[in-house]
Specification:
B: 285 residues, alpha/beta, five-stranded parallel sheet, 27% helix
Chain lengths: 138, 285
């Protein structure tokens, strides 16, 4: 993907965001933000019944082209993926996926959605641990 | 625009449209959203990015003289070039870039009134073609951090003095301490909320009209003078990282002609994280 193709790829997702909007039912709603340039992304996460795989993920947000396009692209990348795959996803991989030449001066914008998704998964696991503890002590 | 103290630093969109092919003029787009330029820009305009071009990439500071000379030379800007900045967000980043250029004493730097939004709203031509200009041999003096830039310890002394003014240009919620960032923006980046003692609150956007152009001189004088920010005072403006306050610095310095105005670019991300620095906080939530 050359520079222009990468830009067109990002613009397509920015102008036509996939998986956009709140999710119901939802396991975790996780807000994320980048104070450097004011981007906001909220990730809505639904995990499968076994608790080990993304069933569906959507997002809402405001901000620059890169941050919002990256969120849209990420939701397509992770649909149906094991949670462990998200654990293994590296911020550099995300930057490469978006087009390093285009986004390398805005790494926080490019990785905001991934970082927020990782946080959502952490919260999902913490919620599950608490629920399991409550169930076992009941 | 003739009403302003220094009307020569402000050009309108018509002026820009008439100077697109003027070899003595370089149009420069500076945005927060780095991909806007790629989506279309004023024909012949180059891009200067506040992150990649104007900041030091390691230390929280601006580029040094050598890199400034390299940047301007590579962009085809000579010492005598008229540089006209424009950008998104009511020219936030355009005034920020102009302020950095003034740290290096570039003589003729101007702002296109209304910025990118007005140019587009008026239906002027846009292009995706990236221009190329013959490099120059730009020579800059050492950066002057003493005249239009304020540092933390200077602000600490500033607030003890009389006959001075300190302007907090952030949103009222940031000023009160209810938030540490603009409304709808993430609540991150500083450990404490509030404002620097003695600061008056004059949000930067009060200086512009709905079409992104600056308000009249009379309206601006009433806005700032009404809060005690008058031309006889040594004035410091701050926001969160110094970008919004560069806009206010531009207004006070060039549109109203205040002789002594500095931008505290460390701003709230430095002050609100500083150990032991005094803070006033009116929000009691």
């Amino acid at each position: 993907m050359d520079r222009q193709e990468a830009i067109e790829f990002l613009l397509d997702h920015y102008q036509n965001p996939r998986n956009h909007g709140p999710l119901d039912p939802v396991d975790v709603t996780m807000p994320g933000g980048n104070p450097g340039c004011g981007d906001i992304v909220t990730i809505y996460l639904k995990v499968n019944d076994a608790g080990d795989q993304i069933e569906h993920v959507t997002f809402e947000g405001t901000g620059c082209t890169i941050s919002q396009a990256a969120a849209s692209i990420l939701t397509e990348m992770v649909e149906g993926q094991p949670l462990a795959t998200i654990d293994d996803m590296d911020f550099n991989d995300m930057i490469d996926q978006l087009g390093r030449e285009v986004v390398n001066t805005r790494p926080r914008c490019a990785t905001l959605a991934l970082g927020t998704l990782k946080a959502a998964i952490t919260q999902y696991r913490n919620n599950k641990i608490r629920a399991d503890l409550d169930a076992s002590s009941a | 625009m003739a009403e302003y103290a220094h009307p020569e630093v402000l050009v309108d969109t018509t002026w820009v449209a008439e100077h697109l092919n003027d070899p003595n003029v370089r149009i420069v787009e500076s945005n927060e959203d780095i991909l806007l330029y790629d989506q279309g820009h004023i024909p012949g305009a180059i891009k200067i990015d506040w992150v990649a071009d104007l900041n030091d990439q390691v230390v929280r500071d601006y580029l040094d003289r050598e890199h400034f000379e390299q940047l301007l030379s590579a962009k085809g800007i000579g010492n005598d070039t008229t540089v006209v900045f424009y950008g998104d967000k009511n020219n936030w980043w355009a005034t920020y870039a102009l302020w950095v250029f003034k740290l290096y004493g570039h003589k003729d730097a101007r702002i296109m009134n209304g910025g990118r939004a007005k140019w587009i709203a008026e239906g002027h031509d846009m292009t995706k073609e990236v221009p190329s200009y013959a490099p120059t041999n730009y020579k800059a003096p050492e950066r002057d951090d003493s005249t239009i830039r304020a540092f933390r310890d200077q602000v600490r002394e500033h607030i003890k003095k009389s006959g001075v003014a300190l302007v907090d240009v952030r949103s009222p919620q940031e000023y009160s301490g209810e938030r540490t960032h603009m409304p709808e923006y993430p609540q991150e980046g500083t450990l404490r909320g509030g404002h620097i003692p003695t600061a008056v609150s004059i949000p930067w956007a009060q200086a512009v009209k709905e079409d992104s152009t600056f308000k009249s001189r009379a309206d601006l004088e009433a806005l700032y003078g009404g809060k005690g920010v008058t031309p006889d005072k040594d004035v410091v403006a701050y926001c969160r990282i110094g970008e919004r306050s560069s806009h206010t610095w531009f207004v006070l310095t060039y549109l109203l002609g205040y002789p002594q105005v500095r931008n505290y670019d460390g701003s709230w991300t430095e002050w609100g994280n500083g150990v032991g620095l005094p803070i006033e906080k009116s929000y009691q939530g």
